[in-house]
Amino acid sequence: NIVLLGKGGTGKSASANTILAAENSLQPMLPSLTIGNSQQDSTPFKSYPSSTPVTTKCETRMMKVGSGKQIRLVDTPDFCHENKSMQEAQLNECKLYCQEEQCVVLLVIQLGRFTEGERGILENLEKLLGWRIREKTILLFTHGENIKCNLNEFIVPQSHLKEILEACGNRYHVFKNTSKDS
């Protein structure tokens, strides 16, 4: 499983669609692999600007990679959002996909928009999920097209962002979700 986590509006769904487009091998989900509210078609994840969360439940798509291995891509809602009743139900579903030995976490952070609420996001997600996701986490920076310097020059002055990156073993990737070269 590849599980995209992060605050609302950072580009989780758009990033999931970028990954699916890059693989260009989206497969309908097999019924035996269905958990919870899984989509069983090849439609992209909903992604558009909105003042309210677009993704309100965990959604999945299956894709084939390399030698035909099936990978589940999981788009998640913002678990730090104010709606606690929605959060608990969706968090329980996310835990099914986000188990320590069965997933890679993409922690999605929008470049140029690192907020106060994101400072403790890694620790908050670890507390909610019940394990140290940092060992399986890659930071996925979105809106890379907006940064006019190299990423290191951008991150160094932002000590909290640098701490998250270091906690995740300095693993990161930058997406330009409007580009086919991400």
UniProtKB/TrEMBL annotation:
Pfam families: AIG1. GO terms for molecular function: GTP binding. InterPro entries: G_AIG1, GIMA/IAN/Toc, P-loop_NTPase. Keywords: GTP-binding, Nucleotide-binding. Residues 1-182 form the AIG1-type G domain. Belongs to the TRAFAC class TrmE-Era-EngA-EngB-Septin-like GTPase superfamily. AIG1/Toc34/Toc159-like paraseptin GTPase family. IAN subfamily. This is Zgc:172131.
